[in-house]
Design a protein that fits this description.
transmembrane helix, transmembrane, alpha+beta, DUF2726, membrane, DUF2726 domain-containing protein
Length: 161
């Protein structure tokens, strides 16, 4: 066998292996570059979790939903201004929605912490309150600095019915 033939026998498999390794590296890099940048976050803050369990304890006969998108609860009538009105509430959510045993809404509850003292948050709270009132949905606002006890909570929710 000539030296050129031996070189060809060794060179071609080595080149093929090199190409395979290079393609594998490129594929791995592209997959990493295309990985979606999402990560899980807590659904509720610690105070919301605490209040959720208080709601469950105080109202075992109700269904408690947390972090409900406002557009799942209220909607403007269909028509030419529908998107205009939907946009006013699109990014908003409710901390809790209380449903009876027929899965009809009893009330919505918002926990207001110190951030609700900011002008931007106060304005958003006013829009949310106004939209819910227009739709006939009862909204209960509770200051996180003064959480009610179980009896006070029961009176807040069931006292006005």
């Amino acid at each position: 066998m000539h030296t050129a033939q031996v070189l060809q026998l060794l060179l071609y498999p080595a080149l093929a292996l090199l190409v395979l390794v290079a393609v594998t590296i490129v594929v791995v890099i592209l997959k990493k570059a295309q990985a979606w940048p999402y990560q899980a976050v807590p659904v509720m803050s610690p105070i919301e979790k605490k209040f959720y369990w208080q709601l469950k304890r105080t109202f075992p006969h109700y269904h408690i939903l947390a972090q409900v998108h406002l557009s799942q609860v209220i909607r403007p009538p269909r028509g030419k201004n529908e998107l205009k009105w939907l946009n006013k509430i699109w990014y908003m959510s409710l901390d809790f929605v209380i449903l009876d045993d027929r899965l009809e809404m009893v009330a919505a509850i918002e926990l207001d912490d110190r951030s609700h003292l900011l002008k931007r948050r106060r304005e958003a709270d006013q829009r949310k309150s106004k939209a819910l009132k227009a739709a006939g949905v009862r909204l209960i606002r509770i200051q996180t600095s003064h959480l009610p006890n179980d009896l006070q909570l029961a009176n807040l929710l069931e006292g006005d019915e």
